[in-house]
Amino acid sequence: MNFYVDAWKKFATFGGRSRRKEFWFFLLINGAIGYLLGLITGSLGMAGMIIQAVFGLAILVPAIAVSIRRLHDIGKSGWWVFINCVPLIGSIWFIVLVAKDSVPGKNQWGNCPK
Fold it and tell me: Hey, where are the domains in the chain?
């Protein structure tokens, strides 16, 4: 759970590095919250959609930030986050990238967070 809290503490920090655990905990917990929010607000009509949109906007910048820091951890530029714009193949390639182990030692974005 500390990894999730750490990601929120650095919600707008695009520099530095993030471990796999921080990245995956952030995505999985927010995905579960979004799913449960959808179940709860599904019957509320437009009000439910507004609540879901607010949640989505609230996690947008932190999700991009943790993704960029994760890419930095494997030695890639944060610009690689845009590979997600390529339908299907881009998302698969992004998952392959962020699943890689950290580059040991120091790289241009800082020390290894392990």
Answer: 2-99
Q: Is 107 helix (H, G, I), strand (E, B) or coil?
A: strand
Residues 6+ apart with CB under 8 A from 60: none
Distance, CA of 58 to CA of 15 (rounded, Å) = 20
pLDDT in tens, 25-62: 999 999 999 999 999 988 888 988 999 999 999 999 99
Across the chain, the runs of DSSP E, i.e. the strands, are: none
Residue 88 tokens, joined:
């299907």
First to last CA, the chain: 16
**Per-residue pLDDT, 14:** 94
